[in-house]
Amino acid sequence: MPVSSVAQRPLPVLRSERTSIKWRRYAPDVLPLFVAEMDFELAPSIVDAVSNALRSGDTGYLDGPGDLAPVFADFAAREWGWRVDPERVHLATDVTVGLVEALRLIVPPAGARVVVTPPVYAPFFEMIGEVHGRAVEVPLVEASGWTLDLQGIERAFADGAEAMLLCNPQNPTGRCHSRQTLEALAELAARYDVAVLSDEVHAPLAHPGVVFTPFAPLAEAAGARSATVTSASKAWNLAALKCAWIVAADDRMAAVLTRLPEEAAARTSLLGLHAGLAALQSTEWRDATVRQIVANIDILRSELAEHAPRVRVVVPDAGYLVWLDLRDAGLGDDPAEVLREEGRVAFNSGPTFGTGGAGFVRVNVACEPSTIVEAVRRVAVVLDARPPLE
Which residues, in sequence order, are bridge partners of residue 297? Predict the structure, then answer.
């Protein structure tokens, strides 16, 4: 039976039942709208798959993706027209581990220059540190709708960058980079022989009417080295189950990824693989979740327009994370800190996303609509106590 709506639980129930960072980092009176996990109940097919594995004692180790590789290939073909060779699929514990392990194989052991495009997923900077590299920031062009700065990227490539971490869909802005932009990036990567690792974990959550373009087929067509790292963790709320996969885009990267350590697969959760298989083969829950997310974004925009008009919304193309501009709100470079202390609502801090993040917060709207309404009310109280900036 098709899933028409996603099941939700009231906030007090979530506080009593869940023990993750989202529910334990701050005091109970703080509304948690920060870390990227959903408040919704899991898809029944995933619960059944993991429960069946537990009942049968299927809780051992992995040495490869097994059925996940062809199932993901089918999913990618249906969703995006991307023809994935199952032989090019490798396992990793999660997306961050996959990116780090791939980076280790393609950059020098120390001093590597890795291009990032801030404001961007904050752990990118930590990943580069793990491989003893240096982040080369090429900020997004806000005036053009938070697009990639292709001229700046070319300068960084020409100056000797060895790799680039691409975020597509982009986090925190939720922007799906256009096919034209990604084709231009692939051509630059091929020209300067820069390896591009694309984090596409939010791709299954593209909003209705939005076209998501995977980078891998464009990279292969241009002759660039590239790999995609993704997972069911964001679109189906499975972060704790620890299963991601790395997909080589081209023959050269495919050869490189055969050198991944054996432990990359062994450290991946078999339960996570069962969950990922169930997710990729049944998308009704995902579709219902996207509908709820889009409705929640509409609620957020409406509530802010009425009660806190100084806050501007960067409307995302994908995902449930929304970038809010509070630069005119008088809360300084890190409004998330002020709103947490004075408004008792927790958002992600804009400055942690790098250049361009000052004055912004990131909000998670994968929650009950009433939580969004209450959060905006709290934000409005804080803003009303401060005069607008001149």
Answer: none
Based on the number of CB atoms within 10 Å of its own CB, is 17 exposed (0-12), middle (13-18) or buried (19 or more)?
exposed
Structural tokens at position 323? 């970038």
The pairing of beta strand 360-364 with beta strand 348-349: antiparallel
Q: How does strand 345-346 pair with strand 31-32?
A: parallel
- Return the HEC string of 319-369: CCEEEEECCCCCCCCCHHHHHHHHHCEECEEHHHHCCCCCCEEEEECCCCH
Tell me: pLDDT of 1 over 60: no
pLDDT at 3: 67
Q: Write the CATH number of the domain with boundaries 47-281.
A: 3.40.640.10
What's the mean pLDDT in 50-63?
Answer: 98
Q: 1-5, 216-220, 242-246: lowest mean pLDDT where?
A: 1-5
Residues forming CATH 3.90.1150.10 domain(s) in the chain: 11-42+284-384
Mean pLDDT of the chain: 96
Contact 246, 98 (CB under 8 A): yes
pLDDT of residue 8: 86
Report whether CATH 3.40.525.10 matches the domain 11-42+284-384. no
d(CA 84, CA 61): 25
Contact present, 335 and 329 (Cβ < 8 Å): yes
> Tokens 């450290």, residue?
267
